[in-house]
Specification:
This protein has 321 residues and is of the alpha/beta class. The chain has two domains: 3-174 and 219-241, Rossmann fold, CATH 3.40.50; 179-216 and 245-278 and 294-314, UDP-galactose 4-epimerase, domain 1. The chain has helices at residues 12-23, 54-61, 78-83, 85-105, 143-162, 188-198, 220-231, 249-260, 283-286, 296-314; strands at residues 3-7, 27-32, 45-48, 67-70, 110-116, 165-171, 173-175, 204-208, 214-215, 217-219, 239-241, 247-248, 265-269. Helix 1 (12-23) crosses helix 7 (220-231) and helix 8 (249-260) packs across helix 10. The longest helix is centred in the N-terminal third of the chain and has 21 residues, at 85-105. The model has no long low-confidence stretch (mean pLDDT 95). Bound molecules: nicotinamide-adenine-dinucleotide. Nicotinamide-adenine-dinucleotide is lined by residues 8, 10-14, 32-34, 50-52, 71-75, 91, 95, 114, 116, 171, 173-174, 180, 187.
């Protein structure tokens, strides 16, 4: 039976990855500094460890693994990324430095790093697609992106010296059920879904900058499929993972409102906008045979009901309209 380690398994994508690996019949050790917030994981073992600590990383890797998935990170949406840059740079860099060194010492064969398209520079709305090589010369928009770029380089350097297989997925904005949906770390799709769920039919929701920025959103099941495909492939270069479908945040609001069956207007408010636009080449991941199965309408059809249920269960936020 294949033995697999998932670091950051208590989080959104890690939880879905554990579910898929377990369904495949793998023996899974799940590790996180906190227990999963929204559900029990089908892992064979769950260890609560702070992976900023080198001994904790050695404990996580103890016993030998066929595949290691490193997803642990100090992580959140634009509001968090713009306000917690010191925490992100310190905590995530410590996790990545100690995890890759412990994995090399443990003699692992295959290591997957969850990176991000935040490694790329900002783009103008009409610009043609950036390919993976366009991450250089480097000019990420935020410190989260710089940490990811450094982690990518560290993983590649350790793989070269120690002779193991390293795979790097640059995730685009991911959404789905069982993700953070309030509290300041939630990303745009979850925040919009929560606001729509809290608003009455015909209501108005606040959107940073009126929702003109352009984004791509990948549904979590599609992302997990791509992660497993890439991790087990021969593709050792960083690889973008996202769909070709691009929308403005205002269009995302329309899709969510449609799924919710509500008429919703937008009020433009000040807030951290992040980059103006995203537009990436997906030839590399598509050449491995990956095609997303969920467009935004279908993915939101699975995500919105879960968030609406959380809102109904816990009550509206204090600043809800
Ligand atoms: P998440 O915040 O839900 O999960 C990250 C997990 O890492 C959390 O459960 C957290 O407790 C854990 N963690 C943080 N510090 C830790 C520590 N010191 N020791 C052990 N565990 C620790 O985030 P997610 O959305 O599931 O993202 C997973 C990975 O994918 C992250 O590396 C993230 O940067 C990357 N990523 C995510 C997206 C997205 O849209 N969600 C986009 C690009 C990249």
């Amino acid at each position: 039976m294949k033995r697999v380690l998932v670091a950051g398994a208590g989080g959104f994508i890690g939880g879905h990855l554990v579910g898929q690996l377990s369904a495949e019949g793998c023996w899974v050790r799940a590790v996180d500094v906190v227990e999963p917030e929204f559900r029990d994981l089908p892992a064979d073992e769950f260890l609560t460890l702070d992976l900023r600590d080198a001994d904790a990383c050695r404990r996580a890797l103890d016993g030998g693994f066929d595949e290691v998935y490193q997803l642990a990170a100090d992580m959140g949406g634009m509001e968090f990324i713009s306000s917690a840059e010191c925490e992100i740079m310190r905590n995530s860099a410590a996790v990545n430095a100690n995890m890759i060194a412990a994995a090399a010492d443990a003699g692992i064969d295959r290591y997957f790093l969850a990176s991000s398209v935040c490694v790329y520079r900002d783009m103008a709305p009409e610009e043609p697609r950036l390919s993976e090589d366009d991450a250089y010369p480097a000019n990420p928009d935020n410190e989260y992106g710089w940490e990811k770029l450094y982690a990518e380089r560290m993983v590649s350097a350790f793989a070269r010296r120690h002779g193991f297989e390293a795979r790097i997925g640059r995730f685009e904005n991911c959404y789905g059920p069982f993700g953070t949906w309030r509290g300041g770390r939630e990303k745009a799709p979850a925040a919009i879904a929560r606001k729509v769920a809290e608003a009455p039919d015909g209501g108005t929701i606040d959107v940073f900058g009126g929702g003109t920025t352009i984004r791509t959103f990948v549904y979590v099941k599609d992302l997990v499929d791509a992660v497993l495909l890439l991790a087990r492939s021969d593709e050792d270069r960083p690889t973008n993972i996202g769909p070709d479908e691009r929308v403005t945040i205002a269009e995302l609001v329309d899709i969510v409102a449609d799924v919710a069956g509500k008429r919703i207007d937008i009020r433009s408010v000040d807030g951290p906008l992040g980059v103006a636009a995203r537009n990436f080449s997906h030839e590399r991941i598509q050449s491995l045979g990956w095609t997303p199965q969920y467009d935004l309408r279908r993915g939101m059809g699975e995500t919105y009901p879960w968030i609406a249920e959380q809102v109904a269960r816990t009550g509206r936020s204090p600043d809800a309209p």
